[in-house]
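Q: Predict the bound structure with zinc ion.
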Amino acid sequence: MLNVGSRGSDVTRLQQTLASRGFNPGGADGVFGPRTKAAVQAFQRARGLGVDGVVGPNTSRSLFGSSDRKYYDGVSDFAPAGTNPGGLHAGGGWGGSQGVSDRATAIAHSMGVPVTSTKRNLADTIRVGSNTGSDHYTGNTNAYAVDYGVSGARGTELARRIADAYGIPRSNIGTYNRHTITVDGQRYSVQLLWQVAGHYDHVHVGIRRA
Ligand SMILES: [Zn+2]
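A: Predicted complex:
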């Protein structure tokens, strides 16, 4: 358990890990002060954890868990495809892919970004100029997709946070690449669309059971 007032190499590692995730603790001096607490709280908010600024078991697992330790060692060092980046769960409808999307929605919610679209029937698919290959289309029964209405730098921030939470390389942002993860023993392919054609006013997350 690390808290305000903690000192030592564990705090240094915590600060380095927070910084590598984009949560600035104000330096890695091994002293858990107010800026480190604020960074921990921001991380907890992004991960949908209880926001108390204390690094207890849940926050520790989310930050240092063995399945995502490799990723958190640095922004250029990503979790391998086929691993659960941690804290994701299958459930709900659409082959469990709806549940896998929940974390992205929680992150958007924490930023005050609204959900603007989920599943669409054939008429709506045609109306919005989409197609039946889309994860949004209700005919794709093992897929789920959510759009988050946001633009500009906040869109980039949301896309990065979602990428990190799902173990998607940030380099996938701006591409149509899909990334495969394993959640609750089932493989899911995740597509994060931002700043590609038609995706400048919303971030799209598509999940499909593989
Ligand atoms: Zn979409």
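A: Residues 9-64 form a domain with the Muramoyl-pentapeptide Carboxypeptidase; domain 1 fold (CATH 1.10.101.10).
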